[in-house]
From TrEMBL:
This is Glutamate 5-kinase. Pfam families: AA_kinase (PF00696), PUA (PF01472). GO terms for molecular function: glutamate 5-kinase activity. It comes from the Bacteria. Pathway: Amino-acid biosynthesis; L-proline biosynthesis; L-glutamate 5-semialdehyde from L-glutamate: step 1/2. It comes from Methylocaldum szegediense. ATP binds at residues 16, 176-177. Its main location: cytoplasm.
Length: 375
């Protein structure tokens, strides 16, 4: 969707609501506000038959409130305990509020691990599509109770973008505590101007965004911009807007000039490459010589062992690695056909020697081009 007038035709929309908005300044869930968003979402579901998936933060903030904690704990286990307590309140609230509008809800808790395993990714997709067909509103959050650094998304903006990719949504609406993306953080510079619309390719955006300062949210505008970039890979348009704006959802869908519209003017990736591009955890790095770097970038070829000059990390077959040039600039990332130890043996050698070097051969390519995405 390249123009706001097209939003009225959106069939599938992901709505992300951040902690900074959900909780009334650390005093627990803001029930009147949540009730109002539920009314708006239910309206779109009933009147326009729009499929809506809600990605809701707030479990940690609500848990802190229920446990009487004034400041966000530093220890991971305390955060996880708060999330487990708070998620109960979050889900109970959504369930009872949507019930008033005759809509069923479903709780989905995900970790990054769930989406990086291709089989689990496809299972999550089938389940969510089935729920949407049944007219249910899925309510998604990160599975904070089990997520450690290794397997976490880190912030719900990224989670919402990966769900938009998973379901090939038309639109991602990120509701937050600001009117949208400003030229500078408006909490630091109240004169900063709101960006109404920008291409997702606009390199100036990166300099405008800063971190979260609310003490409740995570990631600030940096992760929202990154989420919009990720979402554009499935052709999904992103709007970042204030959840405090009256009737924000129906007005955005009607094409009103609210918030910041980040136009996805890039060609969408094939589904498998999109899944690959959404992987956040790299297991190693391959250093390429000039020739290999060029054929990857310019000719879209597979990576052969002969083009690799050095290997960093300890990865297994099928894991994700970065491919960098001699200066360390990332060119691509992809799933390797050989482990780190095997790669160290076959690097700089022609593929015809793999069998004599290792005693077996899985594939002639180190990374097949179907499993490779350019940076
Ligand atoms: N350029 C910017 N425009 C708007 N907000 C920004 C910008 N840079 C940083 N921010 C900060 O991002 C915050 C919103 O992100 P965050 O606190 O993570 O909210 P949420 O909980 O909704 O994800 C704002 O309150 C603001 O302080
Ligand atoms: N899973 C966490 C989400 C934390 C988070 O990303 O918050 P936010 O930046 O407000 O979207 C929670 O529910 O508290």
């Amino acid at each position: 969707m390249q123009d706001r007038t097209e939003f009225a035709r959106a069939r599938r929309v992901i709505v992300k609501i951040g902690s900074a908005l959900l909780t009334s300044s650390g005093r627990g869930l803001d029930l009147p506000a949540i009730s109002d968003w539920v009314r708006q979402i239910a309206g779109l579901r009933h009147t326009q038959k729009m499929e809506i998936v809600l990605v809701s933060s707030g479990s940690v903030a609500e848990g802190m409130c229920r446990l009487g904690w004034k400041t966000r704990p530093r220890s991971l286990h305390q955060l996880q305990a708060a999330a487990a307590v708070g998620q109960m309140g979050l889900i109970r609230t959504y369930e009872s509020l949507f019930q008033h509008h005759n809509l069923r809800t479903a709780q989905i808790l995900l970790t990054h691990d769930d989406l990086s395993d291709r089989q689990r990714y496809l299972n999550a997709r089938s389940t969510m599509l089935t729920l949407l067909e049944l007219g249910v509103v899925p309510v998604i959050n990160e599975n904070d109770t089990v997520a450690n650094e290794e397997i976490r998304f880190g912030d719900n903006d990224t989670l919402a973008a990966l769900v938009a990719n998973l379901l090939e949504a038309d639109l991602l609406v990120i509701l937050t505590d600001q009117k949208g993306l400003y030229e500078r953080d408006p909490t630091l510079d109240p004169t900063a101007k709101l960006v109404h619309q920008a291409s997702i390719n606009d390199s100036r955006l990166g300099e405008m965004v800063g971190e979260s300062r609310s003490g409740l949210g995570r990631g600030g505008m940096i992760t929202k911009l990154r989420a919009a970039r990720l979402a554009s890979r499935s052709g999904t348009a992103t709007v970042i807007a204030s959840g405090r704006e009256h009737d924000v959802m129906p007005r955005i869908i009607a094409g009103e000039n609210l918030g910041t519209f980040l136009v996805p003017d890039v060609s969408p990736m094939l589904a498998r490459k999109r899944w690959l591009a959404g992987q956040l955890k790299l297991k190693g790095t391959l250093y390429l010589d000039e020739g290999a770097a060029r054929v990857l970038k310019e000719d879209g070829k597979s990576l052969l062992p002969i083009g690799v000059t050095a290997v960093e990390g300890d990865f297994r077959r099928g894991e994700l690695v970065a491919c960098v040039d001699a200066e360390g600039r990332e060119i691509a990332r992809g799933l390797v056909n050989y482990s780190a130890d095997e790669t160290r043996i076959i690097m700089r050698r022609p593929s015809s020697q793999i069998e004599s070097l290792l005693g077996y051969v899985d594939e002639p390519e180190l990374i097949h081009r179907d499993n490779l995405v350019l940076a």
